[in-house]
Design goal:
single chain, mainly beta, Immunoglobulin-like, 7 domains, ten-stranded mixed beta sheet, eight-stranded mixed beta sheet, about 5% helix
């Protein structure tokens, strides 16, 4: 059995406390529909929780554990098929799931049971799980291949996961639970004291031999030092002597024996030095799993009347050598911390119940009964029914949970003659934190724990059970007694006092009293789900009331019999949903005050003062509207569901009908005149996000002759909102308009009632003629067309372009106005070699005319055929360069070649703009006339008929050199070369600049020689 407290720990360690107050946003319904396998809690192993004070609920390495969980059908349909998987993962750090753990043999620690629920009772454990039921009726031991799943852990940190799976699960988000588990090494010093005769208690005359055995046990090597066992003799003894000659009886009230073998070992290691300084000394070491025995004998005073005696051995203390907190030192000069290794003394180990033992005896028959164990069982329903989910005994005390528990005591015969029967009873007392005690006298345990125990005497002989003088009932060496108690939070003391009835005296009354003090913790109830049961949107005035439901679970009260519930808003309980034990659902009418965001707080209370709350955020729409009537008797009514608590209103006044005479209406032929008109305006406007739905009614007299209702914006845009009316009565009719979804409130405008029958307009008279579609450079597509007939202002030229066949979902569309006859579709939108379907047609609101322009065009963005120039050569011929090359690849798409060149090399991405075009694979290019020495680089690229050009890096180069012409051409001037008359050579410009600079410097120098006197007194230096 595992403590029921693991339920809370296994859940709460994975739930941030803030989540207990979390808000759930609900738009429609969150109720689960269908079968829903939900893992509520993992109850075994218990989840480890760690604080600065240490860790609780750790597992001991090497000790097998099973897996238990609560699995519930939280849906509204029975589960007819289910499996579950148990996985143990390594902790990836900070409670994250790491890789799958393995056992000592290298096998994955994962078990999948696919035969949990199915239609075959011979194959599966269950054939169904009804809605709301818990698998196995409560805590369920998870099975694999017909046996409980068992894990023998090794030291480490783990994540345990349980996943329940069923087809068509209504909520896969609750199919799994995980807990963190820490596995630690354990150490135990086992003390055993026994009579060499093998008897439980000695009797009769003579010397009695005894043996003490001490073993250092554990999940890992454990060599404790200086283990001290305190031996205490009591009673009518005359001598107690060890086999080493020690007089134990006369050593004082007790004798402390140090067990083990003397060995020189390290006793301190100072790591602040390099290398560490090690100190060694002699210690008595009890080696791991090596028995240490110490024997002796005792004699008693046979002359004493009913002489009795005992010898006890108990662990007093021991020493371990490791890096303890007490070893840490900090250097005050640099604040560096050193984790030294030192010895530390302990008084307890992992299993205190094995740390002591006792042997008893007497001159004649030794009469003794004792309390062997005390246990507290938990996990019952609030009325005490059900089966326990955990048990805690005093040899391994741990925290308990509040709620109904059974205090259970095991008693046993410890006398020297088992055939001597003893009548008995035990007083069970539980004292709470306030000092209030509850006691019962019991000698049976017929309910609460299985199997039920009915009173029997302690012993092995037959006895008279019904007082008829016949010995008809065999006694038993063990007996049990229990009491039911409802625990609240706080420290509790459990005490038991065993009484041997009738005239026989118990030779060892000290073992008839036993007690333990433990903390009782209240686990707050958990909210598993919080659901809105309504379907659709919520609004004021709706016929169906607001309906909510919650699912809860309390590890201290699995049946939920002691829980209470309340529903509130802003701290005020909702009417009819006040705190009670039946308010797990809440039904309340929607009030006007609930409009907009309406948070509902659900709180569950347990019987021990614990509570948990969760918030359900609802959206409530205001179901309102407004109405206004003009002087002429036209009524405008506006119904709206909107996200605001304020009132909604509209205004309506008669408009001038002359403004709406002989009007052309979009989509209809002819002209029409208004028979009624209203200037409408909403009192408040709301955006589309704040409107759930809205509609408008315009009610008029039938004799007005209205046939349609139009909405006209202030900009003059006409929209037909109702093409027919409905009868209100014999004299009145109404035009109804439902605004489209995701629309704001209808803005202010005119509501115009037109008379006369609407004549449906036709498609445009004009149509497309002379259509052409052709590919252009860079992948562009150029369209040209003419128009046959006359286009109206309401007509448009619609263009549709699809990559591939017509009718694509991502077509390019655009509309052009009257007078446009060409359009270019950019090559940035096309793919080279892909074909495009193009349609050009003239359309209006009714449709499009025929004929229309239709064509398919293949986009051309580059030169095909993989053509390039090779064997590229450049030579000089007088004042020209001769360039020739060979073409490689397929030349079917080549219309011409461009030979491009520049000073300096280039790559394909940076071709020069200076090019010569040729239809052949050679070209002659005039050389430049500029003087200088340069290198010119050339390349040749193919060009297709559309002008698409390939790109290429420089393929060859040629050196260029031309000297400046300094000859005089005898033109009657003194100017040489080719300088034009009147031009100043560049060299002359440089000389002029130099002269000006020198003059400026000299002038500044001359001026600086003068003083501050008048001109006559200045000493000028020329």
């Amino acid at each position: 059995m595992i403590l029921v407290a693991m339920l809370l720990l296994s859940l709460m360690a994975n739930i941030d406390m803030a989540e207990l107050q979390e808000t759930i946003d609900v738009e429609e319904t969150s109720a689960r529909s269908g079968a829903d396998a939900e893992v509520i809690a993992i109850t075994s192993p218990k989840e480890t929780t760690c604080t600065n004070a240490g860790c609780r609920n750790t597992l001991n390495a090497g000790e097998a554990t099973n897996f238990e969980a609560y699995i519930q059908n939280s849906g509204d349909v029975d589960i007819s098929e289910m499996s579950y998987t148990v996985s143990v993962y390594l902790d990836g750090g900070g409670g994250t799931v790491g890789m799958l753990a393995k056992d000592a043999a290298g096998n994955d620690l994962q078990w999948q049971n696919t035969d949990v629920i199915c239609g075959n009772a011979n194959l599966c454990d269950f054939t169904s799980l009804a809605q709301g039921d818990v698998l196995g009726g409560g805590k369920y031991t998870l099975m694999y291949a017909g046996s409980p799943i068992e894990w023998t852990p090794i030291v480490g940190n783990y994540i345990v996961e349980v996943v329940a799976e069923t087809p068509s699960d209504a909520d896969v988000g609750n199919d799994a639970q995980t807990i963190e588990v820490k596995v630690e090494n354990w150490y135990d010093i086992q003390v055993d004291l026994s009579w060499d005769s093998g008897k439980a208690a000695e009797s009769g005359p003579g010397v009695k031999d005894w043996t003490l055995t001490v073993i250092a046990n554990g999940s890992d090597t454990f060599d404790p030092r200086d283990v001290v066992i305190r031996m205490t003799p009591r009673g009518d003894l005359t001598a107690v002597q060890g086999d080493d000659g020690t007089d134990i009886l006369n050593a004082g009230q007790f004798y402390d024996l140090t067990v083990g073998t003397s060995t020189v070992v390290e006793v301190y290691q100072n790591v602040s030095t390099d290398p560490p300084t090690i100190t060694s000394d002699s210690r008595t070491v009890l080696s791991y799993l090596t028995e240490f025995t110490y024997s002796g004998e005792l004699t008693f005073d046979a002359s004493a009347e009913e002489a009795s005696y005992s010898l006890t051995a108990e662990l007093l203390n021991y020493v371990q050598y490791s890096q303890w907190d007490s070893c840490v030192e900090t250097d005050p000069t640099n604040n560096e911390t050193y984790n030294n290794i030192c010895e530390e003394t302990f008084t307890q180990d992992a299993y205190p119940s094995t740390n002591e033992d006792e042997i008893l005896g007497s001159e004649s028959t030794y009469h003794d009964i004792r309390i062997a164990r005390m246990t507290v069982a938990q996990g019952y329903n609030a009325d005490g029914t059900g089966n326990p989910t955990s048990m805690m005994s005093d040899d391994a005390p741990a925290d308990l949970n509040v709620g109904v528990s059974y205090f259970h005591v095991e008693v046993e015969h410890r006398g020297s003659d088992p055939s001597v029967n003893y009548e008995w009873n035990v007083t069970l007392t539980v004292t709470d934190a306030e000092g209030a005690a509850t006691s019962v006298v019991a000698n049976a345990c017929e309910t609460g724990l299985e199997p039920a125990y009915i009173y029997k005497q302690l012993g092995t002989s037959l006895y008279d059970s019904d007082g008829d003088g016949n010995d008809d009932q065999p006694a038993e060496l063990q007996g049990f007694a229990c009491m039911m108690i409802n625990l609240d939070a706080g420290e509790h003391t459990f005490a038991a006092t065993l009484v041997m009835e009738e005239k026989t005296s118990d030779a060892r009354p000290s073992n008839n009293d036993r007690s333990m003090t433990v903390d009782v913790r209240n686990n707050n109830p958990m909210i598993l789900s919080l659901d809105l049961m309504n379907e659709g949107d919520l609004f004021t005035g709706q016929e169906e009331p607001l309906q909510m439901s919650a699912t809860v679970f309390d590890v201290d009260d699995p049946s939920a019999a002691g829980l209470e519930y309340s529903w509130s808003n802003a701290g005020v309980e909702l009417p009819g949903c006040e705190r009670s034990n039946i308010a797990q659902t809440c039904t309340v009418p929607i009030m006007d005050s609930y409009v907009t965001a309406f948070p509902v707080s659900f709180t569950v209370y347990d019987a021990n003062g614990g509570s948990t709350s969760q918030e359900l955020m609802l959206t409530i729409w205001n179901n309102g509207g407004g109405s206004a009537t003009t002087d002429s008797g036209i009524t405008v009514s506006y119904a709206i569901k909107y996200y605001a608590p304020s009132q909604f209103s509209v205004s309506a006044t008669d408009a001038d009908l002359s403004n709406y005479e002989n009007k052309e209406l979009p989509g209809y032929s002819g002209t029409y005149s208004a028979v009624g008109a209203v200037d409408y305006a909403p009192g408040t406007t709301f955006s589309a996000s704040d409107v759930l739905e809205q509609s408008m009614d315009v009610t008029v007299a039938k004799d007005l002759g209205a046939t349609s209702l139009w909405y006209v914006t202030d900009a003059g845009l006409w929209t037909l909102i109702a093409s027919e009316s409905s009868d209100v009565d014999a004299t009145t009719e109404v035009f109804e308009y439902v605004l489209p979804a995701d629309s704001p409130v209808l803005s202010a405008g005119a509501l115009v009632l037109m008379g006369g029958s609407l004549a449906q307009a036709d498609v445009p008279d004009a149509s497309i003629t002379g259509f052409s579609a052709a590919a252009a450079k860079g992948g562009a597509i150029v369209l040209n067309w003419g128009v046959d007939g006359t286009m109206l202002e309401s007509d448009s030229i619609d263009i549709t372009i699809c990559e591939g066949d017509a009718g694509c979902s991502d077509a390019f569309t655009t509309g052009l106005g009257v007078g446009i006859s060409t359009f270019s579709y950019s090559g940035s939108n096309t793919v080279h070699g892909a074909y495009y379907n193009v349609v050009v047609e003239i359309c209006n609101t009714v449709g499009c005319s025929t004929p229309k322009g239709v064509g398919n065009v293949t986009a051309d963005k580059s030169v095909d055929g993989g053509v390039s120039a090779m064997n590229f050569a450049v030579s000089e011929s007088g004042e020209t360069w001769v360039v020739d090359w060979d073409a490689t690849g397929e030349t079917y798409d080549v219309a011409s070649w461009n030979v491009c060149y520049q000073r300096g090399t280039f790559d394909a991405a940076n071709m020069p703009s200076t090019c010569a075009s040729t239809l052949t694979t050679d070209v002659t290019i005039d050389k430049p006339t500029a003087a200088g020495t340069y290198t010119y680089y050339f390349t040749a690229v193919p060009v297709d008929a559309l002008g698409n050009t390939a790109a290429a890096a420089a393929l060859n180069s040629i050196d260029y050199q031309r000297d400046a012409d300094t000859s005089n051409i005898d033109d009657g001037t003194n100017v040489t070369g080719t300088e034009a008359s009147g031009e100043i050579p560049m060299v002359a410009w440089g000389m002029i600049a130099g002269v000006v600079l020198v003059a400026f410097v000299v002038g500044a120098f001359i001026l600086s020689r003068g003083g501050d006197d008048d001109d006559e007194n200045k000493d000028w230096d020329y």
